[in-house]
């Protein structure tokens, strides 16, 4: 801060002529003591330092310095407890203030300015930009950022997740946008790039993500992770992310993810490309990129196969669960393990190489996405199943019903309607009476439920019994009924 010449003159006069002390000058002129000391030092006048007043911590200072030298990261709260055990009675807040001045500081580290050749290197990273509400889901808004290290050209693409498929898709779209591929891609140690890393004296043992290696083999670039906790080694993408936050995303409104990505493409090709190139302010980033583009490797003729592939197990209901949503499959594939191949637009369900279902990708949460054909086939199968179950029950209760149904089928009758009528007669009259009535109807050569009903009424009239009344029970009560097999009582006589 520049000090006014008249203030400098007054400070020098009061100190030299009036013999005022530094504190008196600062108090009367309403300036800081350091300002007075600086004016006097610039004039060549020695200013004796103010004597330090004794403090309660003075007796514990050697212990504190020795402890901090041995444990530099020890907290002030722990130190306060340790000196308290040794008799210190000062205030904890003032103690923390004193420890901040006594704690040893690591020496400042100097860095070399890194320069790269055109087309040699790109730096890649994810950035988190809050969340988006999609229906009931709260999806993270993630930005994939790739920066060409030489020209500082930025590629920006937003996703609703940070899955491996999105990571690979960001690379592919960035290479297409740059119309070429750099020779080296620089990453930090995120799981999409590095699964495991062991550093030792002779070097580092790194296990890369195999899907990233497949992408690198297709485009012929080298994935290279930076050292652990050394963000300065990929500072260009870090600065680009800060530039994106301040210059693009701050205060921006958008309707949905495609709209945000469209605005991001316009910004990358517009304002971001027209900014001055850091190496030469007379050249824009766009012009530097045009020169660097000639040094990029050519893209392969075949496109890289994108899509997230996961194995899913189908339960007893015909749905597969992917990304917290349920997608319908044919009911014939329940209790099996299938494969889901998903991208941003579609979710495909495969059984080997056979595609069983294709649904639009849903970004909501806990939604149920169905194909009407799948549901209809399941309903038809359930109807057929009910008919089969009814036939089985009739055959067990009244064996003659099988012959009646066979004869009715030969005459072209509706077997479903006949089965339903016989089931109602069975519930109303019982198995023995129905068996006798069906036998009588077959003897008369009338294979129709009306003949069975008439035979039942004639048998009731002949016995003089009242007509049976249908007993309608609630569903939860009816479910408690179970068939009971009669026990042979002769087993008791044998004992």
Can you give keywords for this protein?
alpha+beta; five-stranded mixed beta sheet; 19 helices; 16 strands; 19% strand
Characterize the structure shown.
Strand 8 (276-277) and strand 9 form a beta hairpin. The chain is elongated, with a radius of gyration of 43 Å. With 495 residues, it is an alpha+beta fold. The chain is 44% helix and 19% strand. A five-stranded mixed beta sheet has the order 3-2-1-4-7, sandwiched between helices.
Strand content: 15-25%
| C-alpha Rg (nearest Å) | 43 Å
How many H/I helical runs? 19
Q: In whole angstroms, how far apart are the ends?
A: 116 Å
Q: Helicity range of the residues?
A: 40-55%
Strand count, sense and barrel status of the largest sheet are:
5 strands, mixed
Structural class: alpha+beta
Number of strands: 16
Q: Low-confidence stretches at least 5 residues in length (pLDDT < 50)?
A: none
Query: What strand line-up does the widest sheet have?
Result: 3-2-1-4-7
Mean pLDDT: 87
User: Outline, from the CA principal axes?
Assistant: elongated
């Amino acid at each position: 801060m520049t000090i006014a010449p008249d203030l400098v003159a007054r400070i020098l006069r009061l100190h030299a002529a009036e013999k005022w002390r530094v504190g008196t000058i600062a108090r009367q002129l309403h300036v800081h003591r350091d300002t007075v000391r600086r004016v006097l030092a610039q004039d060549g006048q020695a200013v004796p330092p103010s004597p330090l007043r004794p403090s309660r911590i003075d007796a514990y200072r050697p212990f504190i310095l020795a402890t901090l030298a041995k444990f530099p990261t020890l907290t002030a709260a722990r130190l306060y407890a340790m000196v308290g055990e040794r008799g210190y009675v000062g205030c904890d807040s003032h103690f923390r203030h004193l420890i901040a001045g006594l704690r040893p500081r690591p020496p400042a580290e100097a860095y070399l300015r890194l320069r790269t050749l055109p087309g040699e290197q790109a730096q890649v990273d994810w950035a988190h930009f809050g969340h988006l509400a999609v229906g009931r889901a709260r999806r993270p808004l993630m930005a994939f950022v790739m920066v060409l290290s030489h020209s500082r050209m930025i590629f920006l693409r937003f996703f609703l997740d940070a899955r491996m498929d999105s990571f690979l898709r960001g690379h592919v779209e960035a290479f297409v946008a740059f119309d070429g591929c750099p020779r080296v891609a620089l990453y930090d140690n995120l799981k999409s790039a590095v699964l495991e890393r062991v550093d030792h004296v002779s070097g580092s043992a790194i296990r890369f993500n195999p899907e990233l290696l497949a992408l690198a083999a297709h485009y012929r670039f080298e994935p290279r992770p930076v050292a652990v906790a050394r963000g300065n080694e990929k500072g260009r993408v870090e600065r680009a992310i800060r530039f994106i936050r301040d210059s693009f995303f701050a205060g921006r409104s958008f309707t949905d993810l495609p709209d945000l990505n469209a605005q991001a493409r316009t910004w990358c090709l517009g304002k971001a490309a027209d900014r001055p190139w850091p190496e030469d302010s007379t050249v824009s980033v766009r012009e530097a990129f045009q020169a660097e583009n000639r040094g990029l490797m050519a893209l392969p003729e075949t496109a890289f196969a994108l899509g997230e592939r996961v194995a899913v197990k189908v339960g007893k209901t015909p749905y597969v669960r992917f990304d917290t949503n349920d997608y319908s499959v044919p009911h014939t594939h329940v209790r099996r393990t299938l494969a889901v191949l998903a991208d941003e637009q579609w979710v495909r369900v495969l059984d080997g190489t056979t595609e069983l279902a294709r649904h639009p990708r849903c970004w909501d949460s806990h939604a149920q996405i169905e194909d009407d054909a799948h549901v209809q086939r399941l309903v038809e199968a359930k109807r057929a199943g009910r008919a089969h179950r009814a036939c089985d029950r009739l055959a067990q209760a009244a064996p003659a019903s099988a012959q009646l149904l066979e004869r009715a089928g030969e005459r072209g009758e509706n077997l479903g309607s006949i089965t339903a009528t016989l089931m109602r007669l069975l519930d109303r009259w019982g198995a023995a009476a129905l068996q006798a009535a069906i036998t009588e109807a077959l003897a008369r050569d009338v294979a129709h439920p009306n003949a069975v009903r008439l035979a039942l009424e004639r048998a009731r009239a002949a016995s003089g019994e009242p007509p049976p009344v249908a007993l309608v029970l609630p569903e939860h009560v009816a479910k408690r009924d179970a068939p009971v097999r009669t026990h042979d009582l002769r087993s008791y006589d044998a004992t």
